[in-house]
Write a structure and sequence with these properties.
With 626 residues, the chain is of the alpha/beta class. The protein contains 28 helices and 18 strands. A seven-stranded mixed sheet has the order 9-8-7-10-11-12-15, sandwiched between helices. Strand 10, helix 21 and strand 11 form a beta-alpha-beta unit. Helix 5 packs antiparallel against helix 6 and helix 7 packs across helix 12. The longest helix has 20 residues. The chain is globular, with a radius of gyration of 25 Å.
Length: 626
């Protein structure tokens, strides 16, 4: 058994700990023993000399001490002056500011993409320093490594590709995936983000170029959740593309054939899941940017068997729920009043339906969690897609949208019918919340926003949640100028706050999935839960909703600052661990077994989470022959 030596070491460590406790009863009563702080263990390497300098996991550049240079045969291969990591970063930041313009690939190349190139080069040569820069400047660089810039990166990935990062499983690899996973050098992988490139953000089918979204998400797992970067794996499942432009592009790096579908497609994803969980039984797999028709089917297929979740369906829903609960608080009402909110939803894709399902469950739980509660909760939503208002009269209705189809008689009393326009629905319903998950830029037109002025809410909320920026249903300037200064505004991509005059600011709240998915992943990892349950996701959303102070909420802030992302993630992860314990799903992690985990109080769970978050500090490197 390949893990047998590890099991022996863990058992010996546990025995030593128990002996220490018996010898000192005060320790047994007063303290808990937590896992060694993540990132502070010496690192065993099997490389020396130039091989170390060329390996981004281990390279420290000019920060190698003289003793390490001697130990790793580096003396003479670096300039003699040893720099601290802070000085290294200072040099890099000076260069970055200077090179931002020079790195542009012609006048049409935006500065954001130039920044991505410079950061990517750092990532290629020194991973620790890359994450140190990212964490220290997370507000500035999160939009570079993730949305909205990652959309540009994916669109241009074939031209930007320089160094492989991650793994590619294609339709050509059928029958080989079980052996392929052993080509990845890490014996332990904690987190995989996988995409098939079929629906990248709101940009459509980008084929193999969608690997950029997996890389960007995992950068945020490292920066926000402290997942060790040596234990993450971006994955692309390439089953072809239906993007005609890519099929004809000689520079395209993926399979130039139309997408597989049906049973053939499912068989490939099945083979991938079996392979990665065979090699890494405790890995967590996050599905990302799969087209709607597969997002739900694959989630239902795997969620009770594997440690996996779909961020587009479940993460987006959780962040939206946190924002919706915040909007209730902003009206001066308790969160328990959420079931009274009238919500018009624009968009019935995977994100829209995911939000609807979670919102309905949240309302139903507040109403008693019985059949009548679910029916009552359903009546609070009006769903509008590209064909208009969805009612039971709709032909060929999507089964996932069916539970939210309005009864014809019901909408008839409101002067509405099947296919009614978004503006008509808003005008007649007078909703508390207008929620956009349509991926249609500008959908909230002047007519729609004018109709929103008739809302019966004391503080109407407008959520333009589609990504990237160009797909946002409206801008904050449009919302505040047309609907009024008193609204709550949230978006999926970052926008600047709006100056309303007279010293008043219209806050643009970015409802970024980054607030939730890192904590869900980290909490699942540290709890040892074999699945990601609805309760764990709900706990994460409610933790985020409660994070903001009353003063912030009154001022129109329903999401926290990205600069606090490490603390937010710690709190969310702790809430997920606590829920896993309460649902009796927690099996423990490393030396923290399930029984010890159950003894921890709230503060101790947070300390346990904190101690297992990796920080970008150069480790001590110890050479050992293989």
């Amino acid at each position: 058994m390949p893990n047998f030596p590890n099991q022996i070491r863990a058992s010996s460590s546990l025995i030593r700990r128990l002996r220490q406790r018996v010898a000192n009863p005060a320790v047994l009563i007063q303290t808990r023993c937590f896992t060694t702080t993540e990132g502070h263990r010496p690192t065993i390497v099997h490389k020396r000399s130039l091989d170390i300098l060329h390996h981004p996991w281990f390279n420290k550049g000019t920060a190698f001490s003289m003793t390490e240079r001697d130990r790793l045969d580096l003396r003479g291969l670096l300039p003699p002056n040893v720099l601290s990591s802070d000085l290294q970063i200072e040099r890099f930041m000076v260069d970055l500011k200077r090179l931002e313009v020079q790195a542009r690939d012609g006048p049409s190349d935006p500065n954001a993409l130039a920044k991505w190139r410079i950061l990517n080069r750092l990532h290629d040569r020194n991973e620790t320093m890359y994450y140190k820069v990212l964490i220290a400047n997370i507000e500035e660089y999160a939009p570079i490594v993730y949305t909205p810039t990652v959309g540009l990166v994916c669109q241009n990935y074939s031209g930007l590709f320089r160094r492989p990062r991650g793994m590619y499983f294609s339709a050509e690899d059928r029958g080989e995936m079980m052996s392929m996973v052993y080509n990845w050098p890490a014996d332990q992988v904690d987190m995989i983000v996988v995409t098939d490139g079929s629906r990248i953000l709101g940009l459509g089918d980008l084929g193999v170029q969608g690997i950029g979204i997996s890389i960007g998400k995992l950068d945020l797992y490292v920066a926000a959740a402290g997942i060790n970067p040596q234990r993450v794996l971006p994955v692309m499942i390439d089953v072809g593309t239906n993007n005609e432009k890519l099929l004809k592009d000689p520079m395209y790096l993926g399979l130039q054939e139309h997408r597989l579908d049906g049973d053939e497609y499912v068989a490939i994803v099945d083979e991938f899941m079996e392979a990665v969980f065979t090699r890494w039984p405790h890995v967590i797999v996050q599905f990302e940017d799969f087209q709607s028709k597969w997002a739900f089917k694959l989630l239902q297929r795997y969620r009770n068997t594997y440690r996996m979740f779909n961020d587009d369906v479940q993460g987006t829903a959780g962040v939206a729920i946190a924002g919706l609960l915040g909007a209730v608080r902003a009206q001066g009402r308790p969160m328990i009043d959420f079931p009274k909110q009238k919500i018009v939803v624009a968009g019935a894709g995977s994100a829209g339906i995911g939000v609807l399902n979670v919102a309905r469950k949240t309302m139903a739980r507040m109403l008693g969690n019985n059949e009548s509660a679910f029916d009552s909760a359903r009546s609070q939503f009006w769903v509008v897609d590209a064909k208009g208002l969805i009612t039971e009269d709709r032909e060929d209705i999507d089964p996932d949208a069916l539970p939210f189809a309005r009864k014809v008689k019901e909408v008839g009393r409101q002067g509405l019918g099947e296919g009614a326009s978004l503006a008509e629905v808003v005008r007649q319903v007078k909703p508390d919340v207008l929620l956009g998950l349509s991926a249609v830029g500008g959908l909230f037109s002047k007519e729609v926003l004018e109709a929103m002025k008739g809302s019966t809410s004391t503080r109407p909320a407008i959520f333009a949640m589609s990504n990237p920026t160009k797909n946002a249903e409206c801008t904050p300037e449009e919302a505040f100028s047309i609907v009024g200064d008193n609204i709550i505004f949230a978006s999926g991509s970052p926008f600047n706050d709006v100056n309303l005059g007279n010293g008043h600011i219209g806050h643009c709240n970015q409802g970024n999935n980054m607030y939730l998915f890192p904590g869900v992943g980290l909490g699942t990892l540290l709890s040892g839960s074999s699945i990601v349950s609805d309760g764990m996701l709900q706990a994460a959303a409610e933790c985020l909703a409660a994070y903001m102070s009353e003063d912030d909420i009154i001022n129109g802030k329903i999401y926290p600052s990205i600069s606090s992302i490490r603390d937010i993630t710690k709190q969310v992860a702790a809430a997920v661990v606590k829920e896993a314990i309460e649902e009796d799903l927690a099996e423990g992690y490393r030396e923290m077994d399930a029984r010890e985990l159950k003894r921890l109080n709230k503060e101790e769970i947070e300390e346990y989470v904190q101690n297992n978050m990796w920080s970008p500090e150069y480790p001590t490197l110890v050479y050992r022959k293989e």
